[in-house]
Here is the input.
Amino acid sequence: MTTSIPLKAYLKACQDRVEGALAHWLPAAAIAPQRLHQAMRYAVLGGGKRVRPVLVYAAGRALGVAPERLDAAAAAVEMIHAYSLIHDDLPAMDDDDLRRGRPSCHKAFDEATAILAGDALQTLAFQALCRDPALAVDAETRLAMVDSLALASGSRGMAGGQALDLAATGQAIDLPQLENMHIHKTGALIRASVRLGVLAAEPPGAQAQRLDHYAKCIGLAFQVKDDILDVESDTQTLGKTGGKDQAQDKPTYPALLGLEASREMAARLRDDALQSLKGLDERADPLRELAAYIVSRPH
Here is the structure.
């Protein structure tokens, strides 16, 4: 597939943009309370693929939105993602000491500071969406963006999915239940990332529904691939503890379907996502490449 921008270069450009936006919104480490701000910066600026911010930029690009209008939204979804990782790693949740190849936030600091860092990142995400002057949309659209991110983050989205995940540990569940869990836990924020980019087009146009279906497909594909990597990859490559799902008896796609059927499922979801982009011009090429990347990534 020929693209106007090679994916590697596009990823780097988006990652650089969102790093700048995150550095702008995050309080400096020297500002009181220093330890809390240090923990926030540690968790957010400690690497990562930045898939969700890239999706914000790529969805906006597909509809002709200038990237500077998307910086706050890209930073906001990454702050929500970082907050969720901080809390997921806590002993009361998934109890993981490693994240992105470094000690988890609660290990680098302490549990109380980690909880507060997650709380503060969640609220800062909404502040960025509310206040950024470069997000040149009307008040109704800005409110819709806040609403979309809030819905994806709460009990009907990511937090609810984590609750379902915790409740399912050690239990036998079927494929529809597993899909429902991950549509919320992983898929909701990925779907919101695309929606934020679409909303910034104002009006988003006739392609909004197609882009939402694309996001739903890649959100589920992302989790299927994560489950596969937990089986096939190692701790050093993943940057987090490998084999943790099996050790904790968590329900996963490989456990339910087997590895080969899981790979086939991820490929079907990728193809469905690509089909939904038909009718969009070459500006949507990064979205097409991202769908392929999500199911082929090494970590």
